[in-house]
Inverse folding.
């Protein structure tokens, strides 16, 4: 499928990707806005591989969803800077036309800027030399050309800046062993880590290769200062192979928590109520294949050892334990209820003295838990 054919229709996976990015943009903007307002400053949304304004089936692209949200909200109308770029002139022309036809677009204090440029070292150097306003940075290349650690780091370095990027696993997996694209792979992982990956991957199974590659890019981002990394997996139509990942990276745990909840909502399946952080068209057609794990039971067994001899609130347990794991807050509440019912912990107030929901005691953030 060519790049232009990719935009001919809005596939389910493209729709999910747009939902994740646009929902996070709005949540991020609400969190960051009080500080921006207090400083009398602005915030920004930058998309360097923006694509057209609409897919051929009429579905709105991510830039349009972001701009519509800005038009609706007063602070965003006054303070949001938007920069869109695409190397394909047809895409930028379509995007400019779609933007100009948006109802209320003239209400934005800062008109959107649309550029038609290749993403390379010049853009990276420009961002590296700038002190950016709080920025949500979306990098969605067709393959991997233009995507590099330096590019992500050039934006992530400044306060309030988060990044979401498209990680084309299939093409990157093949590219790691292709000497013709060695320069691109070295730019993405760093030369030393890319060389280590090439040595590691040869004897591995396909599943092991994927885990190793995603772990490598996650560690590279953390080494660069992006402490909180969260990948979301997209599977092929039959559900047996990964097509790509959408990877979120932030320096702030609050952004990580927000994105976890958003990605959990967009997961196509859960295991014992624990989100898979994956979208697979096959999970609806073959649900039994996606319910074989017991991750909530694993969390129930994990917590007593992790917090032995300690007394903490539910919120403190969640904050200390969830980073780097696919559990969300409600999973911790469910696990603690199971532990309480099995007399493996003591909770204050006790179950009989807490509010009920559907006949069961709730587990509020402030409930104290004593581990033996």
């Amino acid at each position: 499928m060519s790049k232009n054919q990719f935009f001919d229709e809005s596939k389910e996976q493209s729709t999910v990707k747009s939902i994740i990015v646009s929902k996070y943009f709005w949540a991020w903007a609400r969190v960051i806005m009080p500080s921006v307002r207090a400083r009398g400053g602005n915030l920004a949304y930058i998309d360097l591989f923006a694509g057209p304004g609409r897919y051929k089936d009429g579905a709105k692209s991510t830039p349009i969803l972001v701009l519509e949200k800005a038009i609706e909200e007063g602070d965003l109308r006054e303070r949001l800077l938007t920069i869109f770029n695409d190397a394909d002139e047809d895409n930028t022309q379509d995007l400019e036309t779609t933007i100009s036809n948006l109802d209320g677009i003239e209400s934005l204090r800062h008109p959107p800027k649309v550029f038609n440029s290749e993403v390379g070292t010049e853009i990276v150097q420009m961002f590296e030399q700038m002190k950016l306003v709080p920025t949500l940075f979306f990098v969605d290349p067709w393959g991997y050309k233009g995507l590099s650690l330096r590019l992500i780091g050039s934006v992530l370095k400044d306060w309030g800046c988060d990044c979401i990027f498209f990680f084309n696993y299939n093409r990157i997996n093949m590219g790691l062993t292709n000497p013709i694209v060695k320069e691109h792979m070295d730019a993405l992982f760093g030369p030393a880590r890319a060389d280590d990956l090439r040595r590691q991957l040869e004897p591995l199974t396909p599943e092991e290769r994927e885990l190793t590659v995603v772990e490598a890019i996650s560690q590279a981002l953390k080494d660069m200062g992006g402490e909180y990394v969260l990948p979301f997996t997209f599977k092929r139509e039959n559900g047996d192979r990964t097509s790509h990942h959408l990877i979120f990276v932030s320096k702030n745990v609050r952004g990580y928590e927000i994105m976890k909840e958003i990605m959990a909502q967009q997961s196509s399946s859960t295991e014992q109520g624990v989100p898979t952080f994956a979208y697979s068209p096959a999970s609806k057609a073959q649900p039994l294949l996606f319910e074989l794990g017991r991750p909530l039971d694993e969390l129930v067994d994990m917590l007593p050892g992790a917090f032995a001899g300690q007394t903490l609130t539910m919120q403190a347990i969640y904050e200390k334990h969830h980073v780097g794991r696919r559990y969300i807050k409600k999973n911790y509440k469910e696990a603690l209820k199971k532990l309480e019912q099995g007399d493996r912990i003591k909770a204050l107030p006790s179950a009989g003295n807490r509010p009920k929901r559907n006949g069961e005691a709730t587990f509020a953030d402030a409930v104290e838990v004593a581990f033996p």
Q: What stands out?
A: The chain has two domains: 3-282, 295-370. The radius of gyration is 22 Å. DSSP finds 16 helices and 15 strands in the chain. The mean pLDDT is 89.
